[in-house]
């Protein structure tokens, strides 16, 4: 991943303070299913991966071993920013990396700590990202939407919308 591009910097800026991402995957019947997961990253890594802790004993772990195509979405309605990431998920068996990403909050879900035998580290390599970031005040947004309703023309530019291909 090229960290020096404004799009990548903006992408990380938009998700870094959002505690939970919704990870969506396909079930064995093809239905889409989402799970709220805590992003463990403190920054984007050089591979463009996001990390999550999940239980090995759960349906999500088993499903992702078969089909790792996922979407992770983030929303911060207070700041009017929204991010959708698509990529490939895989389990990473790296005790040092688990320890490096470990946090006190993870202890609540995995009482055995970073070496808990039920702890799986899930890495999602981001291949495509899309974000919407509205930087105008609520009043300006409301004005533009009211004007659009009166004129019948869609509102122009309520913020930045960008798509990125990462891999």
Concise overview:
The protein has about 170 residues and is of the alpha+beta class. It has five helices and seven strands, in the order αβββαββααβαβ. Helix content is about 25%, strand content about 35%.
> How many strand segments?
7
Percent in strands:
35-45%
Shape: globular
Whole-angstrom Rg: 18 Å
**End-to-end CA span:** 8 Å
Low-confidence stretches are 137-145
How many individual helices? Answer: 5
As a percent range, the share of helical residues equals 25-40%
Largest sheet: 7 strands, antiparallel
How much is the average pLDDT? 83
Structural class: alpha+beta
Q: Sketch the topology as an H/E string, one letter per element.
A: HEEEHEEHHEHE
Structure description:
This protein has 167 residues and is α+β, with helices and mostly antiparallel strands. The chain contains five helices and seven strands; from the N terminus they run αβββαββααβαβ. The protein has helices spanning 6-15, 59-66, 95-101, 104-109, 138-151, and strands at 20-26, 32-38, 49-55, 69-76, 81-92, 119-133, 160-165. Strands 1, 2, 3, 4, 5, 6 and 7 form a seven-stranded antiparallel sheet that branches. The termini are close together. Mean pLDDT is 83; it is low at 137-145.
Please name the defining characteristics of this protein.
167 residues; alpha+beta; 7-stranded antiparallel sheet; 5 helices; 27% helix; globular
